[in-house]
Amino acid sequence: MNDRGLILGGLLLFVGLITLPVWYNVAAGTPSRPPELKLPAQGKDPFGTAEYMRASHMSLLVAWRDEVVRGGERTVVGRDGKTYAKSLTRTCMDCHSSRAEFCDRCHGYTSARVSCWDCHADRRLAEGSAR
Ligand code: HEC
Ligand code: HEC
Ligand code: HEC
Predict the structure, then answer these.
(1) Is the pLDDT of residue 130 over 90?
(2) Residue among 39, 45, 79 to mutate when testing ligand 2 (max atoms within 8 A of CB)
(3) Is it the case that residue 54 has pLDDT exceeding 80?
(4) Which residues contact 53 (CB under 8 A, 6 or more apart)?
(5) How high is the pLDDT of residue 126?
(6) Ligand 2: which residue has its CA nearest to atom 36?
(7) What is the Cα–Cα distance from 36 to 33, expressed in whole angstroms?
(8) How far apart are alpha carbons 115 and 98 in whole angstroms?
């Protein structure tokens, strides 16, 4: 009655299998890394720290939308004391000018679904008519 070897072997096999993706990445030399985001060359985000923006930009944008569309409040004063339009395309995309290398890159990495672009044009593609 000595199943120890068998049990140990089974355990090792199990651990090996469930960590296969890790070994695969190690072998392929591609450890998973966060996406490289293209940030504005200088300055700071006028609406919060990078941590705050990472965690809360979605609620900020949705709040802006409601304030504009329902309340008619179209402007906000940033931490830098400047007045900004509460606008996805005219404000966020003025600084974060590459949607592909910033917003989309992170949304792709995190599998976030963002439908705003169905209606709001990418400023770079629709300069002038962008909203
Ligand atoms: C079905 C179309 C549609 C979708 C989808 C949509 N919007 Fe809008 N949005 C509008 C329209 C129309 C307005 C009104 C424009 C105005 O009066 O300035 C608006 C206004 C806004 C405004 C204020 C005005 C401005 O210039 O930006 C914000 C902010 C906004 N939407 C954010 C969002 C966000 C964030 C999403 C995704 C979560 C989103 N919208 C999805 C149609 C849409
Ligand atoms: C005046 C320029 C400016 C505007 C306008 C602006 N940002 Fe930023 N944003 C920045 C800069 C610069 C950073 C780099 C981090 C920092 O603030 O130190 C940043 C950082 C961020 C980050 C964190 C990125 C990371 O992972 O490090 C997110 C998310 C973000 N912004 C989203 C937005 C959204 C959404 C809007 C519109 C509601 C917006 N920003 C408006 C300049 C701007
Ligand atoms: C650092 C990563 C990161 C960056 C950069 C980023 N996002 Fe996001 N965003 C997310 C994540 C993660 C979610 C999903 C959050 C959830 O599902 O709770 C999200 C969700 C959103 C939503 C909510 C969508 C909805 O329908 O509820 C909006 C709007 C949005 N992002 C806009 C933007 C815009 C505009 C930019 C570029 C200016 C941007 N994000 C850049 C990570 C990011």
Answers:
(1) no
(2) 45
(3) yes
(4) 45, 47, 60
(5) 47
(6) 92
(7) 9
(8) 17
